[in-house]
Amino acid sequence: MPRPKPDVTETELAILEVLWAEEPATIRTVTEHLYPDGSASHYATVQSLLERLEAKGYVARQRNRVPHRFRTKVDRSRLIGKRLRDVADALCAGSMSTLLTSLLEDHELTHADVKALKQLVRTLEHEKGKKKR
Questions:
Q1: If you ran DSSP here, which 8-state letter would residue 3 be given?
Q2: pLDDT per position as a tens digit, 30-44
Q3: 3: region left, alpha or beta (phi > 0 left; psi from -120 to 50 alpha)
């Protein structure tokens, strides 16, 4: 069973957001997105953050080209799921239904949101039915 990855900080998440939109990306590309009028210290900060994300297993470096390019190794939806499970564990005694209910009651849903949620429930029920057979 794979070990869970360490959590990402908000600053590391900003780096991942740029990579999801622009990958593969160089340190300079990420720096320009995050700090449009950035300095050498901003570049060094981004470089350190990318190295930390690489060490955590969230980012891979393509070393076969100069400058090196970085790609994410984690899908956005998987990271969202992990962070929501962490919130459910911390605030809702692990209950995803409590977390989802709180989110849905506190946010006005559009017709499209309701339609998508109904479809998701149908899909989950169908998948559960297939597993019982």
A1: P
A2: 999 999 998 999 999
A3: beta
SS3 62: strand
25 and 68 Cβ atoms separated by less than 8 Å? no
User: What predicted TM-score, i.e. pTM, was given to this entire model?
Assistant: 0.74
- Cβ contact 8:16 at 8 Å: yes
What value does the mean pLDDT take over residues 3-18? Answer: 85
Going by pLDDT thresholds of 50, 70 and 90, the confidence category of residue 133 is low
Give all strands (DSSP E) within the chain, no chain letters.
59-62, 69-72
Rounded (10°) angle between helices 10-22 and 76-91: 160
Output the CA–CA distances (angstroms, integers) from residue 8 to 2, 23, 60, in the order listed: 17, 18, 15
Contact 58, 16 (CB under 8 A): yes
Give the pLDDT confidence of 87-109 residue by residue, as tens digits.
889 999 988 889 888 888 888 88
Output phi, psi for 28, to 5 deg.
-60, -45
CB 19 within 8 A of CB 53: no
